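Worked Example 4.2. Consider the chain below.
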Amino acid sequence: MQQENVIGEFRYQQYAVKLPSLHDNREQRRHRVVIVGDGPVGLSLALALAKQGIASLVVENDTQVCTGSRAACISRRSLEILDKLGLADTFVGKGLAWTRGRSFYQGEMVMQFDMLVDDNQQFPAMINLQQYYIEQFLLDEVLRHEDLIELRWGTELQSLVHHDEGVTLSLNAVGVDYQSEADWVIACDGGRSRVREQMGLHLQGDVHHGRFAIIDIELESETPAERRVWFETALRPGPMWMHRQPDNIWRIDYLLEDGVSDEEGLKPENVLPVVESFLDMVGEKGKWRPIWISMYNAKALSLDNYHHDRVLFVGDAAHVVPIFGVRGLNGGLDDAYNLGWKLAYVLKGLAPPSLLASYSSERQKAWRENAGQASRSAEFMCPATPSGSTLRNAVLSLAARHPQFSTLINPRQTHSICYADSPLNTPSVTAPAAVGPKLGAVLPEFPLLLNGEPTHLTRLLDARLFTLLRFPAQDATSAVEISDHPLLRVVTLGRPGQPQAGAAGWVEDPDGQVHAAYSGPAGALYLIRPDGHVCWRWTQSDDVDSAAIEQAILRASGWQNDNQGAKDAG
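Applying the procedure from the previous section yields the following structure tokens:
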């Protein structure tokens, strides 16, 4: 295995371990937020808080970013989130976009699917990018916010204790034990969460059949970036995958035999001949060398609640899903973005602490949807019984001649979650045939003009505030005045040739696509949460009561169940 600190174009850095100023082994400064774990989810949450002006401390036991490709697929929704953190262009610039997947059975292609290619989108449906790049890009952005984010490498959480004022953390760095105080602790420390262990909490759910070896290799090849999986080959009966990543790094996964131990299955002398034979089978003749070997199994597990007093769980610390459909990291980024604005609003006094309950309920719904889809894929990929394997192979065999069966093979890639039943939504009366995104949905993307220059709809949103998207009625010549609100940004979308002024500038829908998708002749209004989800809509933009908008903002900020808070906020 490669031992040097350079993989492709990536060079690892070791970061210094530093102790804070201590008195009697106690840190004198109290932290508003401590994030445990500096993986992609923890760093994203720190950035989301920083964009809201909230400082945080991030503690990480390691002294470098991760090894191996790990979570190597970034979805379009995640790119939209990263765009709000200032990083999407960096990710897209390095990542490899892929739009196609192919499945083979006994050497014959039996299914091909194409990811949605939509000229209206600003980002590709999916990019491949190794996790060490993901972490490094996030880290580079974190270092640009040193005034709000402190990162402590080589710092291990020993224990934590709740009390009335917050949480006391016992930490260790360079052999020194010390204590720190925090108002809030966020566990972003992965599937083996130390925070979860210390609190006596356990993930519950299902562990699917099968263990998979995962190998990164450096390979000279011109094969495009697409998802390919082979079933029932002459080499092995179980499935085998191959993905291309930047820097000529390729990811290969294959099913380990049931009777082989983890240790034996991952020994290089057992793995490398399989890789060599596999590359020969698929026609890859270029020079190659191994970079990293690991394994995983498919699990659908979750905590019953992601919110425990002053401690919240995010990403794999809260839940895990089978790898199929790339919902793990992408779900974790969605967690962080959902929690970021809510915790910031609580800390700034703009929302009651009860708002955080919606983080748990919304993201548990997301986990159930993600886990359900991924579990069905896991059961197809690796059936637990001989009869299950027989049925799967029958489907694969039929799919080659009957394309309708190919839908059963599609791994169902991750998609945006709609919080249709969120308590933060304000029900509104809409026409039965009303167009546009529903309550709880993420906005469908479209190109626009801003001050005469090309942009996209989601770039008009301010992640610090609620956004009111206003689509004027067809016979309207100017925007109706809407009373100012400190948490509201009003953006009016002009029809073709009629740019409208608003908080974002002069906005025009040059081809009329956005109006056609979002509004009828009477216009429409959409209230968008800081994380980009619709929380209120109205189908007559020129017949609006400003008080209704203000009440919708109060509800979406968590005041609906807090009469005194709502009174004070009003």
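The first strand starts at residue 6 and ends at 7. The two ends are 62 Å apart (CA to CA). Compare this with Example 4.1 before moving on.
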